[in-house]
Amino acid sequence: MGFLDALLGRSKPVRPDLDQLFGLPSAAITLEAAAGFRPTGLGSVCFSAVEGGAFAEVQQDVRALLDMDAGEGADGAPVESSRDSYGYTWFLVRHSPDDMPSLVNDLHAVNSALEGQGFGPQLLCSLAGFRDDQGRALALVYLYKRGTFYPVCKLPGQEKRDNALELQVKALLVNDLRIEEDLSRWFPVWGAPGTED
Fold first, then answer.
1. pLDDT > 90: percent of the chain
2. Torsion-angle region of 172 (φ positive above 0: left; ψ -120 to 50: alpha; else: beta)
3. How many Å apart are CA 5 and CA 86, to the nearest integer?
4. 43: number of CA atoms within 13 Å, CB side?
5. At 22, is the pLDDT very low, low, confident or very high (cuts 50, 70, 90)?
6. What is the sign, positive or negative, of the torsion defined by CA atoms of 81, 124, 110, 60?
7. Which domain holds residue 82?
8. Is the dihedral of CA 60, 63, 67, 69 positive or negative?
9. Contact call for residues 172 and 40 (beta carbons, < 8 A)
10. Fewer C-beta within 10 Å: the chain N or C terminus?
């Protein structure tokens, strides 16, 4: 950072640390033991789509990478893409609920592939889904540009959040994940693939 940047109060953006995603398996163990939330086997990556042939090629590369990783005999497509009502594109990855490490590897691979092709600025977040015996949905959301996680706990059948439960989950996971301290950045991600009721 140069003198002029310091004088004008500008700072370099923090470089994302995708390896933070590898903390999710230990967080899943903590969540199940302390709060009864188990992985759903669903995870997704959200990005702001850019039109053009290069981006379409990257989408195909991501699919090919995950298809190859799933191997022959995989049930259905290991990755699905969709666009939400806000215009963001999502890659949804499915795994067995008891195979969190493979889910995390795929989420990391999708983020790395997009970043490696120069689409890092378009990456927004990744999430992993959880559910408890009461049917409550929980997502652990990784903010790409901040390198931090936060929980989103939706009330069943509503676009409302259980803020008390989110704060409880935050306290439970403080030793497993780098938690986002700025609560104003805990966006609800309504309708995100992997968080369906």
1. 49
2. alpha
3. 34
4. 30
5. very high
6. positive
7. 18-185
8. positive
9. no
10. N
Lowest mean pLDDT across 54-63, 154-163, 173-182:
54-63
DSSP letter (8 states) at residue 13 = P
Compute how many other C-beta atoms are within 10 angstroms of the C-beta atom of residue 76. Answer: 7
In a domain, 174, yes or no: yes
Q: What is the pTM (predicted TM-score) of this model?
A: 0.84
Pick the range with the lowest mean pLDDT from 75-79, 135-139, 169-173, 193-197. 75-79
Tokens of 134: 């009461």
What distance in Å separates the CA atoms of residue 8 and residue 130, rounded to the nearest whole number?
43
Helices of type H across the chain: 3-8, 24-35, 53-70, 100-114, 163-173
For residue 149 the two structure tokens come to 């996680």
Q: Does residue 139 fall inside a structural domain?
A: yes
Task: Indicate which CATH number applies to the domain containing 29.
Answer: 3.30.70
Q: Which two tokens stand for residue 176?
A: 């497993």
Asked if the structure places residue 81 within a domain, the reply is: yes
The mean pLDDT of 101-112, rounded to a whole number, is: 91
Q: Report the pLDDT averaged over residues 179-191.
A: 91
Whether residue 10 lies inside any domain: the answer is no
Pair 11, 149: CB distance under 8 Å: no
